[in-house]
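agent> call fold_tool(seq_1)
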Amino acid sequence: MKKIIEAATFIRSKIDKTPSVCVILGSGLHAFGEEVTQEISIPYADIPHFPIATVEGHAGNLLFTVIHNVPTVIMQGRLHYYEGYSMSEITFPIRVLKQLGIQYLFVSNASGGLNPDYKTGDIMIINDHINFFPEHPLRGKNYDTFGVRFPDMSETYNKMLIQKALSIAKTHKIPVHQGVYIGSSGPSLETAAEYRMFRLWGADATGMSTVPEIIVAHHANIQCFGISIITNESKDCADGKITTYTDVQKNAKSSEPLVRTILFELIKTLHQ
């Protein structure tokens, strides 16, 4: 807790507006941060105890801005379990930002499509998730200042935000799916057998992030919204096609403007 307070105190000394929304940018989605007026940018490396993002395309900055009159902080780069970080390290930024006063968490990611109806470039609004990580982000001492020891997870993704996002997508003629995201440790992509297992479990898309951050945010009574870009289509049998990280980034960028529109407009509704 001491490290959380020290990091939050440092950040608070650098900003003049308390953010109410945090947006986490996934792989290939960095353009969102380039489209806003940059007020203050703080590298993760400058923040006490803050882990450093090591994955290509994850800049590793906290960008403080105002979107539609809503003070917002953008995480330009997230932390992943496969980078070698513990769950407490991965979710450390969420608890620091909660200490600063955020009320909403909007998470974006690049995902592999499991649902056979999903195609590369499609957008999925997350309405639930499956936690397939080997370590739970709430394992260890519970901090009562954040939330209860045994949080209910039956409505993790805010229904009001989902409905608003669906309405925004309809208004802007953006096709979207609703579905279940399954998070696993990575860095390897799923095998054909794992694809079949995930589908039997009811998952529509898979990735290597999001779930830890969402669990910790929900535990801290932060209202959560998640959105995925389908960057590759998982297969139930080998077909000779190889998916690379370059493919993931390229395919995410192709649909990023649509996700950006949904997120910008969703933030706008918070001020209305």
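agent> call fold_tool(seq_2)
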Amino acid sequence: MLDMFRYGSVTRISPEAPVPVMHVSSEHAMLGGAGNVLANLAALECFCGLIAVVGDDKSGLQCQRMLSSIGVDPTLLIVAPSRVTTLKTRLVSGSQQLLRCDEEDASPLGTEIETQIIARFDAAIAKYNAVAISDYAKGMLSDRVLRHVIEHCRRLDIPVVVDPKRRDLTAYAGATAIKPNRSELAAFIGTPCSNLSISRVAAEHAMATTGSSILLTLSEDGMALFRPGMEMQHFHATATEVYDVSGAGDTALAIFSAGIAARLAMDEAAMLANAGAGAVVRKLGTATLSRAELSRAVAAVDEPRIGAVCGIDDAARLVAHWKDEGLRVGFTNGCFDIVHAGHIEILRQARARCDHLVVGLNSDKSVARLKGPNRPIQPETSRAQVLAAIDAVDLVVIFDDDTPLELIKALMPTELIKGADYTEDAVVGAREVKADGGRVHLIELVPGLSTTRAVERIQQGLEIAR
């Protein structure tokens, strides 16, 4: 598939019809479809090959030349003289795509070309560690071809990752992972996947009926990974500015497949794919990422999130949105005057029990009433900023009361989390959360670690810990 981008400016409306007139100033061709997946793999310096069908035409010849230009042997391509190469031409003014014109033949290829595809695949597969199937429903991936590729790879223990286009995902049954988007998953189950809760049920059904893991792409909501016998993992979107989503799914497929080929854990490969997709949509056109760009994108995801501090009203709106999406919202609280390893462990374990973690932080006045006039050591603004910089924490809310009961009632989390030095009945807010259908979790404390004890030892001129 060839993607052609024609760039220009619009300054007037046509006198012939109520349509804009674009003055074309430049054009740029890129490999599209499976070719764009390959271009992304090549940009990441992966050894890769492409089995695809092109026509005996100008666009097909251009695809072959472009493969050679990125260091990929084009001889695996099959030229079908009676077929037109898919060409998608986009007209772009500024960052706005005005129109797309498609030239293509999506009819079935026929038995003879199917046999050529299978023969080339069988001859080449021993060189590769994984197979990425990019199905654009253009006639190449028939039932026969799909079944042969997936079953042959299973026999060789070679992972297969599929970006689907068919409504029936069971056509890809037996693949290692299938990467649908929200609309493709909705088409499979026949119900709109309007939020993450419905998407979760749909993905679990797809997983059960295909025997494959599901990497669900959620556009501005990131990605969600579903694996048999494991909890869903949600990767939040990383893009802050979106200029062009053309080919973002191809980038995600390429990075995810490369990670699987490198024998990364599936969640690690998904994290890389999510970060890469978030970076590539900031570029115009069907774009790729270099290794350095992917490394920067991953580093940006890992940066501490300073500033996740807000008031009760804003927190309540955000928590309500998360719950509407079917996400588990955790809540824990404390003074966090001198953050120590015990605090970090509790927060880490708390986050493992939810999708988003909110921390209620006692204000300076509240701490003074509870701990005495010489506390807190750190002011509430500093304590809040430290907590917000911890990866496990999504939101920090400061409260003035002696207990977080009113805050808990305002937020109504689905998971209430405290240290195991409490009994469940003694946890503030437990009754309210359970009455709302939530759960209470008690986490074992790290022995010997206490802020109060540390402050006392400092005041006595002693070491904090022996």
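agent> summarizing second result for user.
The longest helix spans residues 196-210. The first strand starts at residue 2 and ends at 13.
agent> awaiting next instruction.
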